[in-house]
Amino acid sequence: MNPECKIELFKENGDIIEKAHIIPYSDTKDNSFENLIILCPNCHTNFDKNSAFSVDDVKKWKEIRKAELESFFSKKYDSFEDLKNAVVPLLLDNKSIFENYYHEDTKDLWDIFEGKILSNNRILRNILKQNLKLIQNHSYENYSNLAIVQKFLLHIDEFEATRVNEEKIRRVLFPEEINSLFGIEPLDGHFLPSVESIESLIEVLQNNGQFETIVLGIDRPYIQIKKKDCISERIYLNDTPRLRQIYYDNNCFRKVNVRFESLNYALKVIKSRGLEFEFVDINNLKEVIVNGVKIVFVYEYCLSKVKLLQFSPEESCVILNLHNWNGESCISTEAYELAKEMKVKLLRMDEFYGFINSIK
């Protein structure tokens, strides 16, 4: 746009925008984003036919407009949710363009729409760089959402730098984890270790009136929540970047006492035998009832007498030590003796299969 032009481009019944080629299309056959500018009809005519403005003038207009837009899209947000609302439409637009036009038989269309991705990427870069503090971070890169965002920013830079290359060989590909982080498409990742973190999240969701249910004992366990528009949504517990961010936003990271992957596996064993389980308390995922038997899950390298006393188990309950890396030594002799006095049953994981079969 000509910064000196005062004509309103947007009217009630539409717009009067015209796309102009900075360097004539007849000379270059260049329809790229870099060679296009938006002008009103008068400025377009004065530039093309009357030579009222030079190519350098028009390029400067574009740079001015670019700076204005970058300033506009450099807002700092108060929460990740606000950031997400700004970022998601741009990511979805890019995703749609890529999926529809990145094919051999649509190369001409891709060459046109690739410029739209470039424009969206520039906005995304400005937004994200201004709001990095809202992203969960960890000193270990594999545990860090900030590392994912930084990789995405590298991808944006490389995408722009290599756009004019015929081969378009790129070393930093689009990180799919970005779509997980911003809730666009769940990632089939790994489980975060702490059961206690999930319990903390359930409490937060309950307090916010969002919690509906949690489904465990399946390959892709999930928490089902109610969004503001009353639509139910699943948060998959192996959608790692998204869950990390949710924990971070809600201060739900907790020390690991029981590993979630081990707990979910034990619950899968129960279901595989045609049995159902119910939680004694939804805020305590480590205790379930199966066919009238209470099972308490613990995760101890060696379940000792002291630890058993700390658990204060009820009579007739079963305590399963999910930590079975050291075989029979995962439960001490003293703990077995105390369990008899307490009238509780202690099980190792290798004994659990037979026990579940016995209570069918």
Automatic annotation (TrEMBL):
Keyword Methyltransferase: no
One annotated GO molecular function: nucleic acid binding
Domain HNH: 4-46
CDD domains, sorted: HNHc
InterPro entries: HNH, HNH_nuc
Tree of life domain: Bacteria
Pfam family of the protein (one): HNH
Keywords: Endonuclease, Hydrolase, Nuclease
Protein name: HNH endonuclease
